[in-house]
Design a protein that fits this description.
By secondary structure, the protein is mainly alpha-helical. Helices cover 70% and strands 0% of the residues.
Length: 166
C-alpha cells in the first residue's frame, strides 16, 4: 500500500498543478463590468492558457495509464459487478461536466451581452479567444471531463486486455 502512495505522489502533485493553473487562468481573465471595458490590445490569460492545456493533456494520458493499471489490479478484489461501476460513474461525471460547462457558457454570454457576432456584446469582433473568455477553455468542468474520460478510456483498455487474456 505504501508503494502505491509513493508511486502516485507525482501524479497528485501534477493534478494539483493543473488545479492551480485553473485559478491562474481565471485570475488573468478579465471580468466584464457593464459600462467599463478594456482596450482589447492584450490578453494576459492566453500566456498561461496554452501551457495549461498541454499539462491537462499530459495529465489525461497519465490518468489513462494509471487507471488501466489500477483497475487491472482491482479486478480480482472487486468482482465483475463492482468493476462495471467505474465506467458508469465516469460517464455520469462526463455528462455532469458538460452541463456545468454549458452553464458557464450561458452565464458568460449573459454577462457579456452576447458573443462575438452580437453588436451589443462586449466582445463584438474580438474573436472567441479574448481577455474575457479564457476561462471557457480551461476550467473545473473541463478538468473533470478530461479526467473522467481518461478513466473511462483506461477502463476500456483494461477491459480489452482482460478479454484478450481470457
Amino acid at each position: 500500500m505504501n508503494r502505491i502512495i509513493r508511486m502516485n505522489k507525482p501524479y497528485f502533485i501534477f493534478l494539483l498543478w493543473n488545479v492551480l493553473m485553473i485559478f491562474v487562468v481565471h485570475g488573468l481573465t478579465f471580468q466584464h463590468e457593464a459600462g467599463r471595458g478594456v482596450s482589447g490590445n492584450g490578453n494576459p490569460g492566453i500566456l498561461i492558457l496554452f501551457p495549461s492545456l498541454l499539462t491537462l493533456l499530459i495529465l489525461c494520458i497519465w490518468t489513462v495509464s494509471l487507471s488501466k493499471r489500477w483497475l487491472y489490479d482491482q479486478r480480482q478484489r472487486w468482482g465483475e459487478k463492482m468493476h462495471v461501476m467505474v465506467p458508469l460513474v465516469a460517464v455520469l461525471l462526463c455528462v455532469l461536466s458538460v452541463f456545468l460547462e454549458l452553464h458557464m457558457i450561458e452565464n458568460l454570454r449573459t454577462q457579456l451581452g452576447g458573443f462575438t457576432n452580437d453588436p451589443s456584446s462586449a466582445v463584438y469582433r474580438f474573436g472567441w479567444l479574448n481577455q474575457y473568455t479564457n476561462t471557457l477553455f480551461y476550467n473545473v468542468p473541463i478538468l473533470l471531463f478530461g479526467l473522467s474520460l481518461s478513466i473511462f478510456i483506461g477502463w476500456l483498455l483494461e477491459r480489452s486486455v482482460h478479454k484478450i487474456g481470457s
